[in-house]
Amino acid sequence: MGRSIAGELLENGHEVLLIDKAPTAISVERVPLAEWLLADACEITSLDEAALQRCHVVIAATGDDKVNLVVSLLAKTEYGVPRVVARVNNPKNEWLFNESWGVDVAVSTPRLMSALVEEAVSVGDLVRLLRFSHGDANLVELTLPPESAVTGTQVGDVSWPEDTSLVTIIRGTRVLTPNPEETLEAGDELLFVAAQAREEQLEDLLSVRREDAAG
């Protein structure tokens, strides 16, 4: 997973350092543009050698939740890394991956896979894709049903809940910037960053027409 993430980041013009304590995992030929360090990322001396304080982002992507938490905590508290992303392997441990452990963004592979399945089969239901630790906010998605109260309405005319921001509209193969004049259409996939406390209110707003709900 680490090598795959590194490859994509390098393609987007980022500088990447990969740290692994297993010699067999060091595959320079597979990601030749990355820096490599054979070390234990849970050790302060290793992170000193990596000069972690110069990093803008640290990604803890091992298959061990304990390791990912330790790396996240050290990156945030000892080196002041601005953004820490951590992989959650066991959903039962998800509650630990928060700002107390230095985690800015927790990515739960099992939860993300189930969310993508839900997103593929659900219309009108709010699907949580990603949790951001800071501010108790989530990245959520809803596919707009034809009977929604906001279908046919311009973005700027919708009274969105507080602590909610429409980030993107996906319409077919197009990715649209949600400007105020954009008209919402049935089948649009709407991506929001929303406070968890506002999710139910957001789903109520988008899923069913008011007269249908009253009936």
UniProtKB/TrEMBL annotation:
Domain RCK C-terminal: 127-208
Domain of life: Bacteria
Record key words, sorted: Ion transport, Transport
Keyword Transport among record annotations: yes
Domain (RCK N-terminal): residue spans on this chain: 1-107
GO molecular function: monoatomic cation transmembrane transporter activity
InterPro entries recorded: NAD(P)-bd_dom_sf (IPR036291), RCK_C (IPR006037), RCK_C_sf (IPR036721), RCK_N (IPR003148), Trk_Ktr_HKT_K-transport (IPR050721)
One GO BP: potassium ion transport
SUPFAM superfamilies: NAD(P)-binding Rossmann-fold domains (SSF51735), TrkA C-terminal domain-like (SSF116726)
Pfam families: TrkA_C (PF02080), TrkA_N (PF02254)
PANTHER family, A to Z: POTASSIUM CHANNEL PROTEIN 2-RELATED-RELATED, TRK SYSTEM POTASSIUM UPTAKE PROTEIN TRKA
Protein name listed in UniProt: Potassium transporter TrkA
Organism field: Streptomyces scopuliridis RB72
Native organism taxonomy: Bacteria, Bacillati, Actinomycetota, Actinomycetes, Kitasatosporales
